[in-house]
């Protein structure tokens, strides 16, 4: 039915997963940093984090992808000669895709982590410090375990959206499964078959992700009572 293109699409699925996981690492780091800046006492840090989350959440992902890939490449090649580098610099589509998606979802995870930290009663942190713990120990033993529990629902939703957003990297020439499905559809003139295959693969990835993150959420919720109405 797929006329021998299935192995190629599966290879593209591996690229898609690699992009998604690499982007997630960047997004988590930016999210933690952004949350820390928003919760800090520094007005400058709060302002920078607020501008970051506001701008990123207000501009379409596709526009950001094109801006960073094409605009970034133009800016780098204008700057390089001034630094004594004469050769043309070609931005790797994989790096551009990962950086863009990570940068975008870092803004969303900033709000997820900020909300999770704010959900923890301040008295618990104060009690930890009064008990003689350092700030690092308070974070590791008190804040982080609870932050994970509160953040997991939003984190799961952001991860699922991030996985689907990886389809955007096909427009900058990265050979992910959308790109390979498009080439197969053009060669065979059977777009429905190949795009439906990609849809099923995305559904498999998101379904497995839901199961794994659901199990993780249950683990971090052990011993927690849910209030009944």
Description:
The structure is a single chain. This protein has 229 residues and is mainly alpha-helical. The chain has a domain at 15-174: MetI-like fold (Orthogonal Bundle). The protein contains eight helices and no strands. It starts with 5 loop residues before the first helix and ends in a 9-residue tail after the last helix. The mean pLDDT is 88.
Strand content: under 5%
Predict the CATH topology of the domain at 15-174. MetI-like fold
CATH superfamily of the domain at 15-174: MetI-like
Question: What profile does the largest beta sheet have?
Answer: none
Order of H and E elements: HHHHHHHH
- Treating each run of at least 4 consecutive H or I residues as one helix, how many helices? 8
Number of strands: 0
Q: What is the radius of gyration computed over CA atoms, rounded to a whole number of angstroms? A: 21 Å
- In whole angstroms, how far apart are the ends? 53 Å
Outline type: flat
Spans with pLDDT under 50 lasting ≥5 residues? none
Mean residue pLDDT: 88
Helix coverage percent: over 70%
In short:
By secondary structure, the protein is mainly α.
What characteristics describe this protein?
8 helices; mainly alpha; MetI-like fold; 229 residues; single chain
Q: How is the secondary structure organized here?
A:
Elements: H1 6-39, H2 43-58, H3 61-79, H4 93-118, H5 122-130, H6 135-165, H7 177-188, H8 191-220
Helix pairs in contact: 1-2, 1-4, 1-7, 2-4, 3-4, 4-6, 5-6, 6-8, 7-8
């Amino acid at each position: 039915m797929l006329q021998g293109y299935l192995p190629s699409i599966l290879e593209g699925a591996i690229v898609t997963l690699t992009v998604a996981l690499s982007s997630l690492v960047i997004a988590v780091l930016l999210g933690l940093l952004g949350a820390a800046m928003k919760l800090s006492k520094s007005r400058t840090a709060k302002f920078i984090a607020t501008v970051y989350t506001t701008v990123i959440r207000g501009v379409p992902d596709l526009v950001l992808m094109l801006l960073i890939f094409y605009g970034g490449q133009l800016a780098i090649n204008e700057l390089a000669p001034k630094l004594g580098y004469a050769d043309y610099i070609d931005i790797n589509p994989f790096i551009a895709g990962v950086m863009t998606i990570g940068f975008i979802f870092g803004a969303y995870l900033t709000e997820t982590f900020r909300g999770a930290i704010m959900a923890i009663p301040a008295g618990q942190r104060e009690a930890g410090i009064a008990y003689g713990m350092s700030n690092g120990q308070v974070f590791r033993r008190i804040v982080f375990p609870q932050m994970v529990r509160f953040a997991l629902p939003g984190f799961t939703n952001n991860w699922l959206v991030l996985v689907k957003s990886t389809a955007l990297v096909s427009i900058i020439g990265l050979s992910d499964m959308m790109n390979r499905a498009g080439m197969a559809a053009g060669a065979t003139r059977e777009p429905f078959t190949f795009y439906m295959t990609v849809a099923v693969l995305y559904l498999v990835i998101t379904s497995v992700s839901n199961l794994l993150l659901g199990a993780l959420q249950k683990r971090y919720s052990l011993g927690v009572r849910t209030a009944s109405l």
